């Protein structure tokens, strides 16, 4: 089987800039892009009341700056930070990093929950106790159009989640608001999925039923599975899959992901795959001391240093690498229609 060519981005779409921490960037200047990463994953209430012994903000900023500058030297030009509310997004803190590096950093909006939202959302919104418009939609649109937390940093990606609990009522709310924000602004959507449960198909169906063009949708963590039939179904429907956990050894081993990518490249799917790590310079969930012991390659430099050379050695063509790391990211990040 050979994949049909992915529809190209139109001229009008290609002209629209991509929002980054330093302002708009023309899509042609995005270059080699890591599409699913984090700078810092935090937990504001825990961090305030029970600080993590390994966390020092100034040291963390210096570590991130050094890591991103190293990525620049390795040829990476853009990193998408998918840290959204629910994962401790802090644009002021990441802004300190962005001001000191050459790499473009793209901020994201959305909400990270695979089950329930915070209590505020139980009372606010149409038909609820306090009423008013859907606050999630308003938040997402404000982050995209005006900037996050008064910073002026506009979100360039929407992030949503479904996992083992499935499409719970609150998860449906988040996805519905993301679809509305996408249709209004053209900002693309990426997901956290559970590939072993094949729930990317549920995400794809839910979002496309609400008008989302799958060309502007990434089903994240698809590479956790080597079920090629499942992955083909996502890509044949027009979505892009994220093979985006290289180095994350406790979830999927690199050899499995490399074999999966090579098999799909052989079938002609280079235009529907993006590669990344889902790494962080500091994460409260899996702190640096734990990562050094258990996942030593779960770093932002693992793809350019180790994985891409291995893909080349095992048959991936240079044009396939450029397609996955440059062209696909450019197509996905370029806002489509809307009024962002």
TrEMBL record:
InterPro entries: AryldialkylPase_Zn-BS, Metal_Hydrolase, Phosphotriesterase. The modification N6-carboxylysine is found at residue 159. It holds the Pfam family PTE. Binds 2 divalent metal cations per subunit. Its cofactor is a divalent metal cation. GO terms for molecular function: hydrolase activity, acting on ester bonds; zinc ion binding. This is Phosphotriesterase-related protein.
């Amino acid at each position: 089987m050979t994949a049909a060519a992915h529809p190209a981005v139109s001229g009008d779409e290609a002209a629209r800039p991509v929002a980054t921490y330093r302002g708009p960037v023309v899509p042609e200047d995005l270059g080699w892009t890591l599409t699913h990463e984090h700078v810092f994953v935090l937990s504001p209430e825990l961090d305030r009341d029970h600080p993590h012994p390994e966390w020092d903000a100034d040291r963390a900023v210096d570590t991130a700056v050094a890591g991103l500058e190293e990525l620049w030297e390795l040829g990476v030009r853009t990193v998408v930070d998918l840290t959204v509310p629910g994962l401790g997004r802090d644009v002021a803190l990441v802004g300190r990093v962005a001001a000191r590096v050459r790499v473009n950093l793209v901020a994201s909006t959305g909400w990270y929950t695979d089950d329930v939202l915070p209590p505020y959302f139980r009372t606010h919104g149409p038909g609820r106790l306090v009423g008013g418009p859907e606050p999630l939609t308003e938040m997402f649109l404000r982050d995209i159009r005006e900037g996050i937390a008064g910073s002026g940093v506009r979100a360039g990606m929407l992030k949503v989640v479904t996992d083992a609990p499935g499409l719970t009522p609150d998860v449906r709310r988040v996805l519905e608001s993301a679809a509305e924000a996408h249709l209004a602004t053209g900002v693309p959507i990426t997901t956290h999925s559970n590939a072993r449960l094949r729930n990317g198909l549920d995400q794809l169906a839910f979002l496309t039923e609400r008008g989302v063009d799958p060309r502007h949708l990434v089903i994240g963590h698809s590479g956790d599975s080597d079920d090629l039939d499942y992955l083909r179904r996502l890509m044949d429907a027009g979505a892009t899959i994220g093979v985006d956990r290289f180095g994350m050894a406790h979830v999927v081993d690199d050899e499995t992901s490399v074999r999966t990518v090579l098999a799909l490249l052989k079938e002609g799917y280079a235009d529907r795959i993006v590669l990344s790590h889902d790494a962080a310079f500091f994460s409260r969930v899996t702190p640096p001391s734990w990562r050094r012991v258990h996942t030593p390659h779960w770093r932002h430099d693992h793809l350019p240093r180790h994985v891409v050379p291995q893909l080349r050695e095992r048959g991936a063509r240079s044009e396939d690498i450029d397609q996955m790391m440059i062209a696909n990211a450019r197509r996905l990040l370029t806002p489509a229609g809307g009024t962002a």
